[in-house]
Amino acid sequence: MRTDDPPQQAGDDPLPPVRDVLTAIATGLWRWDNAAGVVTLDAEAARLLGLPARAQTLTEAGVRSRFHPVDWNEIDGIVQLAVAEGTLAEARLRIMDEQGRRVLRIVRSRSKPIVDAATHSYELIGTLQEVTEPPPGAAHRTPVTGDWRRSREAFLLDAGRALAEATSTEEVLRVASGLSMPGFSPDGLGVFGIEGDRLKVIGHHGHKPGDDTPFMAMPLDTDYPAAEVVRTGRAVYLSSPEEYHERYPATWPLAQRFERQSWAFLPLTVAGRTMGAWLAAFAYPVSFTPDERAVLTTVARMLAQALSRAGVAESERKLTEGLQRSMLPLLGPRIPGMSVAARYVPTGGGLQVGGDWYDMIPLPNGRIAFVIGDVQGHDVRAAGLMGQLRIALRAYASEGHRPDAVLSRATRFLSGITDGITGGSSGEAAGDRADPRFATCLYVEADPASGVLEMARAGHPEPAIRMADGTVVQRPVAGGLPLGIDPDADYPTTRLVLEAGETMLVCTDGLIETGGHDLDSGWTRIRKILEEYDAAGDGDGGDGLEELADTLVQAVHGPSSHHTTGPLADRREDDIAVLLLRRTGRPELRTAARRTVLTVAQAEPERIAGARQHVRELLHDWADPDQVDSAVLMVSEMVTNVLVHTDGDALLVAEVIGEPGTRRLRAEVSDSSDDLPHKRHPGELASSGRGLVLMELLADAWGVDPRGDGKSIWFELHEGNGSPSGEA
Question: What pTM value is reported for the model?
């Protein structure tokens, strides 16, 4: 026997195994391998985490899902500090249920980091032990640990950020229902407001539909905790059902059926005024320690501020939306032979008002006028000017004026308004005096019986036509300056025919240029949507047209909800107004031919480029690209000759007939001159005289037809014949 061995005393028994001791005191063991990302639990540790009570190994993510997110973020810093200092890592952690909404229990973890010197990775080996809630009345004896204070601070920061970002009452209530407080989380919430001399339930969480009925119109003098809080501005804490029943016996039966154990009623105070009360109900006893009351009070103050901001924002939103809605018309009764759809979407930032508008005006001659426009800016002043301009246009149109006269009068009207503002009295603000506005506008007078459209344009984007076979072309329309710039501006009229089955799109630039697009790329995006539009089910009711209007708008700005953002939800830089006009009719009257008409005036030689683009769009699916180039070249030559050698305008009529693969293109350019062209043989240095030579080489057929008031020169190309230019 060694002399340094402790003496064996009579009656001493060997100690039980360590695992049995830990199990007896409800303490679990866990091991966290940071390098492998796995956590090993014994049966008791698994039970404490809300898992089946058996030894198991989980991934780090699986264990993390059982802890409150705030606590998990905090424990990382605690572990890193313990690794650096070689001390124990101690933390207090909340265990959540599977849905992450309710705290099951609170556990204390004590673990020792073991660091691998070679890899610098570490393992945590430690214990988990449940921490019980203190009994009612023992709050003054319960110390508040440092990790609980850190959790509280992190929770308040997160709660403040989330409530500050909420922009509506519904969002504020949703954020409040998701708050999980450090160490104690209510499973029933309610927000009460004041309506006259009664309480009203603004929102609640953790209750079934209909549970709020007894509380909907409760008088403020009722012996109910929320009513007392509103009357006095002081919080009410009830730690047990007995205390509730003793203090409020009259309304205790209303609360008894919810089977809660503790309640906190706190005032919602803004600028010294109590605007309501907040209820937090708990399914387990809560002693409401001073620190817990401090957390609840702080949350109530933040909630009151958030509800106040949301209420002001909703009032402003309702005011501006009501203002905008009152200025936008409702589309009138159904038009025989035509279907109409329209949309307006305010800008995504700032006030939800702007200067975009559309209108439909019955005319004295039985026709219908369609107007779309955009006053510069998206503020209250733009909306006010838009309302005045819309009324003026409606008045001029109702007097029976032609489209050009309507816009001429409108530009004088808007110029007079802005001149009156910019030349105001010296007492006006300098910003108001130096803020002239202009407006773009497109005015269309439509004859539903014949499909004839007469249009005048004031700086507005040109319309697009979707033909019956899906071909989309942009229609050049003669125009003038935007309204309000020159009171003496003229606005020429363009006439075209909308055939049965064709759809015309007119819109403001918000639909085209939103999302960083320019006019070209924006029209490319819109053209794709129009080409994919299926109008097969569209009858006189215009159901397909409504779907197309929604598709066009949705493709630009996406969903508007702040918590379900779309890919373009943050790109709504401008208002959007869309007007769709479709010529309906019996299917047997619809023609499969593509036909387009375009006028190029002497004063607008730049329109020749538009004529070339027009032909390319008409032949977008032509089989032979060389024939398309030939057609564009010949049209350009014919239109240019009219502008150079005559004093009149050029009228281009192009038509595609037949089935794909065997179609025929006929293009004809007419003018008012009786002088017929003659074929010449120019020299190498000649600058003209090659037009008819090109047509003879490139066209399958061509000719010149004299008319009583001029002449027309035409050519034909047959799809599938190949390009004669290649043989030449």
Answer: 0.54
